[in-house]
Amino acid sequence: MIKSFKHYLGVYRYFVSTSLSEALSFRTSFVLLILMDIFFYFSVLFSVDFLFDHTLMIGPWSKYQLLFFIAFMLNIDTIHMGVFSSNFWMLGFKIRTGELDFDLLKPTHSIFVAFFRYLKPSSMVTAPVAWGILVYYGNKIGLYWYDWLMIPPLLLMGLALLCVLEFILSTSMFWLVEGMGVNFLRMQMQQMARWPDFIYKYTYQKIFTIAVPLLLIGSGPVHFIFDKSKWPYLLGMVVALIISSLILIKIWDKALRQYDSASS
Amino acid sequence: MKTYLLKWWQTIRISWSKYTAYRLNFFLQVVGPFLVFFFIKYNLWSSIYGEDTGQLIRGYNFDEMMQYHVWTLVISLLGQGYAAMNLSEDIRLGRISSYLIYPFEFWEFHTAGFLSFQILQIFVSSVTLGLAIFFGFLDLPSTMTLLHGFSFTFFMGFFWFTMQYFTGLLAFWLEETWIMRVLLSIVVSFLSGYIFPLELYPEWLVSGLKFTPFPYMSYFPAKIFMGVETNFMMGYAVLAFWMAVFAFVNHLIWKKGMRLYTAAGM
Predict the structure, then answer these.
(1) Residue B89 lies in a domain
(2) In contact, B169 and B257? CB cutoff 8 Å
(3) Of A29, A185, A204, which is closest to B43 when you measure between CB atoms?
(4) Of A79, A113, A127, B263, which is least surrounded by CB within 10 A?
(5) Which residues contact A61 (CB under 8 A, 6 or more apart)?
(6) Can you say whether residue A106 is alpha, beta or left, with left for phi > 0 and alpha for psi between -120 and 50 degrees?
(7) Interface pTM (ipTM) of the complex?
């Protein structure tokens, strides 16, 4: 187990270093990516801020509670952008061109190579901005020390759930010739998760919490941070993670059998 | 002249076939994002208004707010497409070499593609509009209002295409132009009133935007469709000015870019 972990860590070190070299070769793109993320953060935050100039509460939350939620989601987005997002776009291309053959031949699990191969190092620069925003709004709502301690594991839990759901969705690219549309659908999933569960009407809330647990990604952890009696949200996240991971393994095997290796 | 028009017609037909070849992909890529965003806005505003749908938020009751968002949905479908998406790829992969020897220029090919996309989007947005009326989100406005609204939206679509063309041409210098495209759509969504009506924004920001193209890309046409905005000339004038600016810049970039072009893959 430890040996295998070390092996994967060693491989991942190379993924990081090649992605970093590649990103730094195109410096203008690197800077533009940072600008794009910063614009995105502030457009989302300002939109919510403007909204609260005309209403006191949205659902049960005040302005700073909602902004804390948004900041929490921005942090998930930042890690997601940095570590995973490029891989989804590349997967479609690899399936279409048959380049996935090379990944399948590597002595690691194919899910690892497919979804961890490319990183976006510009997120390392924007991550401190996202943390700063989270800390700012966390202070505004007066979080306790133990709340701050819980934030990193809860962020990782939310991120893990988002990624597993996206991995599952991405396997549909094996059946479709063009994967671009699936990636756009994936981005819409993120868009929906960026708003708290209570803004959705009852039926949609149930569908996107139980059937496709998108709304648990951010709402689960933040509800728990605000009110510890809402621990069933976390239990729900753990169950959703386990079930989704099992579905992913099954569906990934099926997808690989469907893969017809365009280049061969 | 007849041969020239025939070239345009054939290019439009080819682009049409390309767009409709992968219909599910087209739906997910072009229609899906706007529909999902509308779904979120509908839920968000339902939650803000709650039971009191008659309360006014900056002059909008719930029904009017929904009408505004349905119109921005239709406007986005019609006027803010992805037609210039392949342009940068053509440059980066050296495919523009073919256009240099074809009797049909690069900009003509992509503009024909844009027109084809617009024709397709007329169909998509008509269905969307029909559904919005069927589900009671909208009452059909008068023919005159529709005519004004659609002509302004088409005009705005040309402006959007000119801007997209600009980001595509940057491929002469940039490895990845999608970043510019996304950056542009973040800025446009935020400043055009696509997310919320501009009445909800601080006044200093709205007055600062008056002579930029942004308010005329969602807010202004939505107000035309709602029968509120009647000062069409202002919108046409501002957009025409910015369209001329971008067309001129595009011309310069093309000329400079062609000097740099290495015809990769030849």
Answers:
(1) yes
(2) yes
(3) A204
(4) B263
(5) A69, A196, A198
(6) beta
(7) 0.90
Q: What is the rounded distance in angstroms from the CA atom of residue A234 to the CA atom of residue A231?
A: 5
The reply to whether A263 falls in a domain is: no
**Total domains, chain A:** 1
Phi, psi of A61 (to 5 degrees): -100, 145
Give dist(CA A139, CA A232) in Å, integer.
Answer: 25
CA angle, corner A226, sides to A66 and A193, nearest 5?
Answer: 45
Among A40, A54, A185, select the one facing B186 at the smallest CB separation.
Answer: A40
Q: Is the pLDDT of residue A230 over 60?
A: yes
- Whether residue B151 is predicted with pLDDT greater than 90 in this model: the reply is yes
Helical segments of chain B, H only: 2-21, 23-26, 32-49, 62-79, 87-92, 96-101, 106-134, 143-169, 178-191, 203-209, 219-225, 232-260
Nearest CA in chain B to A25: B175
In a domain, A157, yes or no: yes
Please give the residue range of the domain that contains residue B45.
Answer: 2-260
Give the rounded percent of residues in chain B with a pLDDT score beyond 70: 97
Across residues A126-142, what is the average pLDDT?
A: 96
pTM here is: 0.92
Domain contains A264: no
A263: pLDDT confidence band, cut at 50, 70 and 90?
Answer: low
Contacts of B182 in chain A (CB under 8 A): 36
In this prediction, residues A21-42 reach a mean pLDDT of 90
